């Protein structure tokens, strides 16, 4: 969004409204009530390509607060225009960030944040409730390159396709006669890794969550992330309008998104790996460069969940996972491969289903 000039009366009115909103926000904080913050991507509010315990927060919030956040498409104006996107459709914030941000890498994602959540300490869990996810622009892209994706030996060249998004119908027009239902989600949601890890690439997911590319994390779901540093230092980005499990060519329906996230510091939970919960399923996760090892992590996490939250024995948890849990390939292309295990809530019929980290 560019700058525009307003009459003095309009400027005065706008300043007055801003002061009233700021006063209301301060009053909420004084009263101890949750506050809703806004965070947009600018050259000073993004982390380009990394998660880092040493990163400086761009926003401080309290446990229970919500953040209305905006994220940017992971591409450059030059590449988008080269693929046929009219220059006027390139977001000005994307141009500003590509022009002004010099602290980059080693990854390529433009992540909004970090957000410091007061009270979060190493050993806690950050509960991220995904309240809302909306399309911010009317297009997405999909692309592959000669050294990326799951089949680089078959596709030794680069290609990008601009894909129109119909927000009213929530459909992507992939090609004549091919429409894809949209399920927007943030591909990357994570916290700073342990300080000893230093600055980590934004591409591979891990115990800090990060670039999970888990298509189940749509509005209405909750993500639980182990905290490794004070304040957690949460970042979000890599917006997807939709994706297939595996994300085999290395990109999904890449786009810009807006969303509302609610943050809760959980002192009563202790996790080693991220977990999630949808309205219908419990989800455990695992990542590793080896797909078999990643699968074993996700499965062992599911067994652990069933033992601790559903009071099953080790043997029974293993058996239940075999007959009722679905092992899914999350993604195959992010440096470390991702697997998630999903078990439906409806199978637990005895008493109201107990969720991840909820009291029994």
Question: What secondary-structure arrangement, pairings included, does this model have?
Answer:
Elements: H1 8-31, E1 36-39, E2 46-48, E3 50-51, E4 59-62, E5 66-71, H2 77-82, H3 92-100, E6 110-118, E7 125-135, E8 139-144, E9 159-166, E10 171-175, E11 178-181, E12 185-190, E13 200-201, E14 209-210, E15 222-226, E16 234-240, E17 257-266, E18 275-277, E19 281-288, H4 291-310, H5 314-324, E20 326-331, E21 337-344
Parallel strand pairs: 1-5, 4-6
Antiparallel strand pairs: 2-6, 3-13, 5-17, 6-16, 7-15, 7-17, 8-9, 9-10, 10-11, 12-14, 12-16, 15-18, 18-19, 19-21, 20-21
What brief labels describe this structure?
360 residues; Jelly Rolls; 6-stranded mixed sheet; single chain; 5 helices; Endonuclease I-creI; globular; 9-stranded mixed sheet; 2 domains; disordered N terminus; alpha+beta
End-to-end CA span:
49 Å
How does CATH name the architecture of the largest domain? Answer: Sandwich
Enumerate how many helices there are, as a single number. 5
- CATH fold-level topology of the largest domain: Jelly Rolls
What is the percentage of strand-forming residues? Answer: 25-35%
CATH superfamily of the largest domain: Acetamidase/Formamidase-like domains
Report the strand count.
Answer: 21
Basic shape:
globular
Which CATH first-tier class of the largest domain would you pick? Mainly Beta
Level of helix content? 10-25%
The number of distinct structural domains comes to: 2
Poorly predicted tracts of residues: 1-30
The average pLDDT score comes to: 91
Broad structural category: alpha+beta
Query: Largest sheet, order of strands side by side?
Result: 1-5-17-7-15-18-19-21-20
Order of helices and strands: HEEEEEHHEEEEEEEEEEEEEEHHEE
Major beta sheet summary: 9 strands, mixed
Cα gyration radius (Å): 21 Å
């Amino acid at each position: 969004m560019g700058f525009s000039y307003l009459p003095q009366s309009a400027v005065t009115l706008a300043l007055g409204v801003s002061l009233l909103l700021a006063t209301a926000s301060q009053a909420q904080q004084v009263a101890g009530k949750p506050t809703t913050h806004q965070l947009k991507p600018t050259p000073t509010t993004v982390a380009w390509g990394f998660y880092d315990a040493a990163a400086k927060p761009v926003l401080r919030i309290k446990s229970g607060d919500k953040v209305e956040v905006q994220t940017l498409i992971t591409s450059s104006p030059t590449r988008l225009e080269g693929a046929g996107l009219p220059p006027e459709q390139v977001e000005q914030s994307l141009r500003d960030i590509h022009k002004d941000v010099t602290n980059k890498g080693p990854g390529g994602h433009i992540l909004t944040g970090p957000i410091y959540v007061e009270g979060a300490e190493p050993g806690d869990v950050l509960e991220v409730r995904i309240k809302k996810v909306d399309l911010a622009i009317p297009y997405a892209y999909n692309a592959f390159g000669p050294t990326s994706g799951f089949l680089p030996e078959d596709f030794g060249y680069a290609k990008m396709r601009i894909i129109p998004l119909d927000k009213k119908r929530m459909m992507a027009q992939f090609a004549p006669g091919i429409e894809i239902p949209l399920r927007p989600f943030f591909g990357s949601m994570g916290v700073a890794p342990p300080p000893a890890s230093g600055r980590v690439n934004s591409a591979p997911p891990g115990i800090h969550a990060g670039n999970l590319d888990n298509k189940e994390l749509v509005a209405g779901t909750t993500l639980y992330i182990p905290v490794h540093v004070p304040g957690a230092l949460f970042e979000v980005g890599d917006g997807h309008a939709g994706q297939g499990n595996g994300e085999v060519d290395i990109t999904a329906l890449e786009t810009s998104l807006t969303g509302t996230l609610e943050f809760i510091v959980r002192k009563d939970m202790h996790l080693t790996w991220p977990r999630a919960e949808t309205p219908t399923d419990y989800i455990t996760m695992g990542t590793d460069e080896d797909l078999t090892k990643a699968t074993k992590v996700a499965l062992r996490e599911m067994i652990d969940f069933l033992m601790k939250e559903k009071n099953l024995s080790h043997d029974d948890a293993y058996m239940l996972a075999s007959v009722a849990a679905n092992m899914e390939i999350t993604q195959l292309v992010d440096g470390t491969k991702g697997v998630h295990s999903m078990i439906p809530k409806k199978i637990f019929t005895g008493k109201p289903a107990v969720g991840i980290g909820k009291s029994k």
